């Protein structure tokens, strides 16, 4: 977390989350109203692949009284979710970003932009390539009537067609998020590029099994989804390798920075030790000088003491003193 950010209590986090969700839901409702206003154009866009194959003289039917209304509501909601996705992602990023470090934000930001772009690519693939091929395959089962049999003709229902189209677009858009998911897992250290490469054969089986569940029961849709999943898996391996190289380079730079810090600390320690040694040597020299001065003083005191002793032991000269003269005068007086 940034150094200038303060630690927020849990209640403020919940209030912040509520505000972000409020803006996201408000954007969803606004776009829903706009999309419902253009719902016939949006539904016509979704029906165009089928209409181009069936021709202008064909029709679609609905068998329930409310089927068309709820179909239009679903179309509007589906389009509103797609249009308001940038607002939702922006609010999500505004809530999460303050709790991330700078390098984490720079690492996560590309995936935030890649998610809607990859979903759009998956939807475009299914709309412009898979749906025309699949619809042509299904319409090939129509038969013209004759004397011996009845005609078999498609009468597509409005609600069923929309459900099938939404299922295909959602399946392809979701599968196109595979590089984002695996690259994030590789950055987190959960998976490795070598591990993904070793499990490639299992990934192929899982990809076609996943495609069989999400698509209609025809080979065109299953192969059309299974092959892109495998290609995206290979792209994910390449991106995982790139992510591992970047992470190894960052770790190497961190190790170099730590080594430089350790060397700087050791140099500082050596300089401190040298400074301490110099100080101790200076102090020792001062102590030695004081000892020499004390010894010199003691020698001077000893020589003065010896000189005093020599003066006390020196012989005195004999001769008449004042006392002797007094005694002689006293004797003479007697």
Provide the β-strand percentage band. under 5%
Q: Which outline best applies?
A: elongated
Strand segment count: 0
Query: Low-confidence parts, pLDDT < 50 over ≥5 residues?
Result: 1-5, 310-323, 329-334
Distance between the termini: 127 Å
Specify the structural class. Answer: mainly alpha
SSE pattern = HHHHHHHHHHH
Fraction in helix: over 70%
Tally of DSSP helical segments? 11
SSE layout and pairing:
Blueprint lengths: L9 H28 L1 H16 L12 H17 L1 H12 L5 H38 L18 H18 L2 H10 L5 H6 L1 H15 L4 H94 L9 H12 L1
Helix pairs in contact: 1-3, 1-4, 2-3, 2-5, 3-6, 5-6, 5-10, 7-10, 9-10
Overview of the structural elements:
The chain has 334 residues and is mainly α. Among the domains are: 8-115, no CATH class; 177-280. It has eleven helices and no strands.
Features:
334 residues; mainly alpha; disordered N terminus
């Amino acid at each position: 977390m940034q150094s200038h950010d303060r630690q927020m209590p849990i209640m403020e986090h919940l209030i912040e989350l509520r505000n972000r969700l409020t803006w996201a839901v408000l954007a969803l409702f606004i776009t829903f109203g706009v999309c419902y206003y253009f719902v016939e154009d949006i539904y016509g866009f979704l029906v165009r692949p089928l209409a181009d194959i069936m021709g202008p003289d064909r029709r679609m039917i609905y068998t329930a009284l409310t089927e068309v209304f709820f179909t239009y509501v679903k179309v509007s909601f589906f389009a509103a979710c797609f249009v308001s996705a940038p607002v939702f992602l922006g609010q999500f990023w505004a809530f999460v970003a303050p709790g991330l470090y700078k390098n984490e934000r720079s690492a996560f930001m590309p995936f935030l932009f890649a998610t809607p772009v990859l979903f759009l690519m998956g939807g475009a693939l299914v709309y412009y390539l898979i749906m025309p091929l699949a619809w042509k395959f299904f319409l090939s089962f129509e038969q013209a009537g004759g004397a011996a049999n009845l005609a078999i003709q498609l009468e597509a229902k409005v609600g069923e067609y929309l459900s099938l189209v939404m299922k295909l677009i959602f399946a392809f858009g979701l599968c196109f998020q595979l590089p984002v998911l695996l690259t994030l897992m590789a950055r987190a250290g959960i998976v490795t590029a070598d591990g993904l490469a070793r499990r490639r054969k299992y990934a192929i089986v899982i990809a076609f099994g996943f495609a069989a569940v999400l698509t209609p029961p025809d080979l065109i849709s299953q192969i059309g989804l299974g092959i892109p999943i495998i290609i995206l898996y290979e792209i994910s391996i390449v991106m995982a390798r790139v992510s591992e190289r970047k992470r190894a380079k960052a770790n190497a730079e961190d190790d170099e920075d730590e080594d430089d810090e350790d060397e700087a600390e050791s140099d500082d320690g050596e300089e401190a030790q040298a400074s301490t040694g110099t100080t101790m040597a200076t102090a020792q020299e001062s102590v030695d000088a004081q000892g020499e001065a004390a010894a010199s003083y003691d020698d001077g005191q000893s020589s003065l003491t010896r000189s005093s002793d020599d003066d006390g032991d020196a012989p005195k000269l004999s001769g008449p003193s004042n006392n002797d003269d007094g005694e002689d005068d006293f004797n003479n007086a007697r």
